[in-house]
Amino acid sequence: MGSLWTIGFIVIMFALMYFTMFKPQKKQQQKKMEMMNELKKGDNVIMIDGLHGKVDSVNSKDKTIVLDADGIYLTFSRMAVQQIIPAAPEAEEAAPAKESAAEEKSAAPADKPAQKEPADTPSSENKDDHSSEE
User: Fold this and answer.
1) 81 with 47: CB under 8 angstroms?
2) Does residue 74 sit in helix, strand or coil?
């Protein structure tokens, strides 16, 4: 009877270990593989070493990508991609709205007199003095 409890306890320990350690790791690996399969030309990515760039081409046969990092083209394994940076269409739409808001603000100060900054601001003078001492 005691040996049945021991065997049952060992089986339960293995089941707990599987569901707490191996199952989440498998899900994470599957999620990463889906991300690698979704890579396409023009995606902005962050590599595992912290390099930011834009995908120039994807080679499915060799499982590599060519990354454009400010005009320097580098070839990496697809598995070296840590994160795909999502494109922000909201930011593109917000840019024209900011421009129109800036135009409204530039028209509004014509009604109010401009405030002058005091000529003897110590903060700007101190910055120059400290940089020349070093």
Assistant:
1) yes
2) strand
**For residue 45, how many other CB atoms are within 10 A of its CB?**
21
Residue range 112-129, pLDDT digits in tens: 555 555 555 555 445 455
DSSP 61: T
Query: What amino acid is encoded at 46 in this protein?
Result: I
- Do 46 and 82 contact (CB within 8 A), yes or no? yes
Nearest-angstrom CA–CA distance, 54 and 42: 6
Give pTM, 2 decimals.
0.48
Regions of the chain where pLDDT drops below 70: 1, 87-134
Amino acid of residue 134: E
Rounded to whole angstroms, the Cα distance separating 75 from 43 reads: 15
For residue 113, give every residue at least 6 positions away whose Cβ sits within 8 Å of its Cβ, in sequence order, or none: none
Phi-psi region of 63 (alpha: psi -120 to 50; beta: other; left: phi over 0): left
Q: How many CB atoms lie under 10 A from the CB of residue 46?
A: 14
Q: DSSP code of 108?
A: G
